[in-house]
Write a structure and sequence with these properties.
Mean pLDDT: 86
Shape: flat
Number of strands: 57
Low-confidence stretches: 1-31
CATH superfamily of the largest domain: Immunoglobulins
Largest sheet: 5 strands, antiparallel
Helix content: under 10%
Distance between the termini: 43 Å
CATH topology of the largest domain: Immunoglobulin-like
Number of domains: 7
């Protein structure tokens, strides 16, 4: 609470039976952050009350009186009259059994007739539970409300080995925790040991310290079985790679790798070191025809039983590789892919991603994502070599498992492989469409289609004979500042068949409006549909202070943005902001990463006006000027008149101020009321006229 009334105010307020407080503007406790004192329990369980002498003492201090409630209500336990002393020891009370509450009554004046009460706070009661598996569960209470503590406060868990005498113990930090924490589980790093623990609340003006608690901690339990992250093919050497999480038990010294072969599980190798969590199976150089299973066990450095044996976990969940097979149908150009399920990820497989490459696209390209174990693909280019690989993605972990690679030669009559709209961009009143196709395979012409109903229907708007790719089409019959347009293209092959329809490509339409509180609301249509979608949208802006486009935000999914331009309010900012949105393509299988831009949208905000109604020549600010932002600063005038209509001052520059002087004479105007008239325009030419009164104070 820390606010109290002086007894001379004759107000008395009773707060339940815990404590009463007198409120004053000059309280001992008014200058300190709550709480103003701390409770510290030493190693033998005695309580120390510690306070900040700078903040809760007074030159007229008579004495501090200390009250404690250890279970039977508050009683006086001692006092201190020396203003330089900042602690009090509550002796012969053991605080290791429960939390107890305390407050300070501070008396001042020659006879101590005036007094104040502090907040009521409690000791930290700290408890330890031995889990008998090399871990201890620690818990404690909050001594004060968490909301009353400074923002940098934290709990620090400390440990020490028992010492004699106890007060000579050396305490080491185990962990620091957020101030709202009330528990922690600690792993010991030895097989057995006597340990004491306590918790310290690091805060201001002082620290709270709990009682200690401890015991003999012993690891009699085997560690948990390791969790395999993945089994994956290393495509560089065709070995299988196993990766798993390090054990949470700190005393694990080795992992045992098991392999399922010949109908049974057999140990394959032992990997020493808790952080050595990967293994290559080099027992064979290829797994092109086998599905192989692995499991991992953990062995710690502690032993139990008779005769003693190292604590060893059971083998964890088995994981297997992915074996990919293919069949190619030459006549149809169809590739049939089949593979086995990846097992025992915690939440299964989110998807199987199928990648391919060929003699044209030498880098792996994402073909598709599926949850099926079978996939059919019609090749887009014949008479070249193809390679396929399957990548399983975990549903809960950011990890993948690779299959083996299958390779074959696709003997097929040539058909267009590429038919792709990579960009649809707005340039002023024109839209250009960039198309990626295949050269040299007998394409007769390229058809250009446009839709005004979002793809429900298309109109053939043009065609290009014997096109050379990449090809750019300029559409002049459009109004891109009013709407969005959707495009698609197709090729006519050497057999005059219309084949290889492209993806859609849609121009971005940017719109917006000015809202209250210096916010512009911007919305835009999505770009669609790149093969792998939009990686992100970039919103750029320019204004009179920054006349070139500058990146404002980028977002992977958002189609709107509220632009708070409060920080733009510089003196010469005119309030007109222009915007343009750009869509950035996720890399396609063709290697394209297009950029498509929208129309430019400009929004004009209303001026911000603040005009003071008084000028105090003796005040901290001894001048007067209107505060006006987002206007045309070339057309600005302020006139100040007396009540008799005499022109007192004329300001024609935004930086000019009125210092109370009469123009031409330079003398100080008389105290009284004056009339101002402010005239200006915004950048669009809208006229503003403001009148009001100024009171001059001398």
């Amino acid at each position: 609470m820390n606010k109290f009334l002086n007894s001379s105010n004759n107000f008395t307020i009773f707060f339940s039976l815990v404590y009463l407080s007198f409120f004053s503007n000059n309280s001992f406790y008014s200058q300190c952050n709550s709480p103003c004192f701390c409770l510290q329990v030493d190693e033998i369980g005695e309580v120390y009350i510690v306070w900040d002498t700078l903040n809760i003492t007074n030159v007229n201090l008579f004495e501090h009186q200390f009250y404690a409630d250890t279970g039977g209500g508050f009683v006086l336990i001692g006092s201190e009259s020396n203003p330089s002393v900042n602690s009090f020891n509550f002796q012969n009370y053991f605080a290791g059994n429960n939390a107890s509450s305390y407050f300070i009554k501070s008396l001042y004046g020659s006879s101590g007739s005036n007094f104040y009460f502090s907040d009521t706070i409690s000791t930290i009661f700290f408890d330890l539970v031995n889990l008998f598996d090399g871990r201890v569960a620690l818990s404690w209470n909050h001594p004060v409300s968490v909301n009353s503590l400074p923002s940098n406060s934290q709990y620090i868990v400390e440990s020490s080995s028992p010492s004699n005498p106890p007060t000579s113990a050396i305490w080491n930090q185990v962990v620091s925790l957020p101030v709202d924490s009330l528990s922690y589980i600690d792993n010991i790093s030895v097989c057995s040991s006597w340990l004491n623990y306590r918790v310290r609340l690091s805060s201001s003006p002082c620290d709270f310290v709990s009682n200690l608690d401890g015991g003999f901690i012993e690891d009699q339990q085997a560690p948990d079985a390791p969790i395999i992250n993945l089994v994956s093919q290393d495509t560089s050497n065709n070995h299988l790679y196993i990766d798993w999480n390090p054990s949470i038990a700190q005393d694990v010294m080795a992992y045992i790798v098991f392999k399922f072969s010949n109908g049974s599980w057999n140990p394959l190798d032992t990997i020493f070191g808790i952080q050595n969590t990967s293994f290559y199976d080099t027992t064979t150089t290829t797994f092109q025809n086998d599905i192989v299973k692995y499991s991992i066990a953990a062995m710690d450095s502690c032993s139990s039983g008779n005769p003693p044996q190292f604590n060893t976990s059971s083998a964890g969940d088995e994981h297997n590789n992915i074996l990919l097979n293919q069949q190619y149908e030459q006549c149809t150009g169809e590739v049939l892919l089949s593979f086995n399920e990846y097992i025992n990820w915690p939440f299964g497989v989110s998807s199987y991603k199928i990648y391919y490459k060929n003699d044209i696209n030498l880098n792996w390209q994402l073909l598709d994502s599926t949850n099926s174990l079978n996939y059919s693909y019609i090749i887009q280019q014949g008479n070249i070599n193809y390679s396929f690989i399957v990548v399983a993605e975990s549903d809960s972990l950011s990890i993948n498992s690779l299959s083996n690679i299958v390779e074959f030669y696709a003997n097929q009559p040539p058909i267009p492989q590429s038919s792709y709209i990579s960009q649809v961009q707005v340039h002023s009143d024109t839209i250009f469409v960039k198309y990626i196709g295949d050269n040299g395979i007998g394409i007769k012409s390229l058809n250009i289609y446009r839709s005004l109903d979002n793809g429900i229907s298309f109109e053939l708007i043009d065609f290009e004979p014997n096109p050379v790719f990449p090809y750019t089409y300029y559409d002049l019959d459009v109004y891109p500042s009013e709407r969005s347009y959707l495009y698609q293209m197709s090729v006519i092959d050497s057999c005059l068949n219309e084949v290889a329809f492209s993806n859609f490509g849609q121009s971005i339409f940017l719109d917006g409006s000015s809202e209250d509180y210096l916010i512009n609301n911007l919305v835009w249509s999505p770009y669609q549909n790149w093969e792998n979608g939009v990686e992100r949208y970039e919103l750029s802006t320019f204004n009179n202070l920054n006349p070139t486009f500058q990146l404002l935000i980028d977002s992977d999914t958002a189609l709107n943005y509220l632009h708070d331009f409060t920080n733009f309010l510089e003196p010469l900012f005119d309030g007109n902001i222009c915007y343009q949105i750009s869509a950035i393509e996720n890399l396609s299988s063709l290697g394209s990463s297009g950029i498509s831009t929208s129309n430019i949208k400009c929004l004009q905000s209303e001026p911000i006006i603040f005009i003071p109604n008084a000028l105090d020549l003796n005040g901290a600010v001894n001048y007067w000027k209107p505060i006006i932002k987002m206007i045309d600063f070339s057309d600005y005038k302020v006139s100040i008149y007396s009540r008799q209509g005499e022109l007192i001052a004329l300001l024609d520059n935004i930086d000019q101020v009125w210092d109370g002087r009469i123009m031409n004479t330079g003398s100080i105007a008389s105290m009284g009321v004056y009339v101002y008239q402010v005239e200006f325009k915004n950048p669009t030419g809208k006229y503003f006229h403001k009148k009001g009164q100024i009171t001059l104070i001398r």
